Amino acid sequence: MDRYSVITEKRKREIVLLRGRGCAYKRCTFCDYHLDCSPSDDDNFALNAEVLSHVTGEYGELEVINSGSVFELDNRTLDLIKSTCRDKGISVIHFEVHYIYKDRLAALRREFDEFTIKFKLGLETFDYDLRERILLKGIKDADPAVIADGFDEANFLFGIIGQTEQSMLRDIELGLNNFERICINIMCDNSTAVKPDRSVIDTFRTRIYPIYKDDERVDILLNNTDFGVGE
């Protein structure tokens, strides 16, 4: 498992894949990332401390992911993130957060008030039926502006049955209108029942990818390890 990497394209930053107690939601039908967890705060902190020891601060930005939400990291890890960023001259920190924690974003911004915090939402799609009846994301709001309130960035998932060129383009347009940045993840085969749709992926690669591959506000992960972390 690779847990530290450097993103050298578009918004340059370091990225760490830490480990927490586990995703509190754990009902997304397409996701098995939540398996990367441990109930032991001591074990998690030991692992996270080793990972954070690689951070250099070379770009002044750090993205922190942990197969869930930042709120599932232990307090010592949170304190170590602060001290590491302070010591390395990092001013911008990106955290991933599930929508269930939406009401806690402001408090965490205050806790990290010496840094600029960017919260990334795992939205997957603005298509309500696909998101809530198939993917079971647990985001019951439908208005894009309401969903985006408090979040700076969003993840989208493309390459599954039911998506079309038009629906993917709509997601991208709405994403760029409501968030500072978006990250497009192409569905990869995993242990869940949700499988990649090769025709949808081919449509994305040929019709959409050429339009946005150089857009500075759009990260595109054709493989789930393209940021250099994971396995």
Explain this structure.
The longest helix is centred in the last third of the chain and has 15 residues, at 198-212. This protein is an alpha/beta fold and 231 residues long. It is built from 7 helices and 8 strands. It has one domain: TIM Barrel.
Q: Biggest sheet: strands, sense, closure?
A: 8 strands, mixed
Total domain count: 1
Question: What is the count of β-strands?
Answer: 8
What is the mean pLDDT?
Answer: 95
CA distance, first residue to last residue: 5 Å
Instruction: Note poorly predicted spans.
Output: none
Helical residue percent band = 25-40%
Proportion of residues in extended strands: 15-25%
Number of H- or I-type helical stretches:
7
Fill in the CATH topology.
Answer: TIM Barrel
CA-based shape: globular
> For this structure, what is the CATH homologous superfamily?
Aldolase class I
* CATH architecture annotation: Alpha-Beta Barrel
The Rg value, from CA coordinates, equals 17 Å
Structural class of the helix and strand makeup?
alpha/beta
Task: Please report the first level of CATH classification, the CATH class.
Answer: Alpha Beta
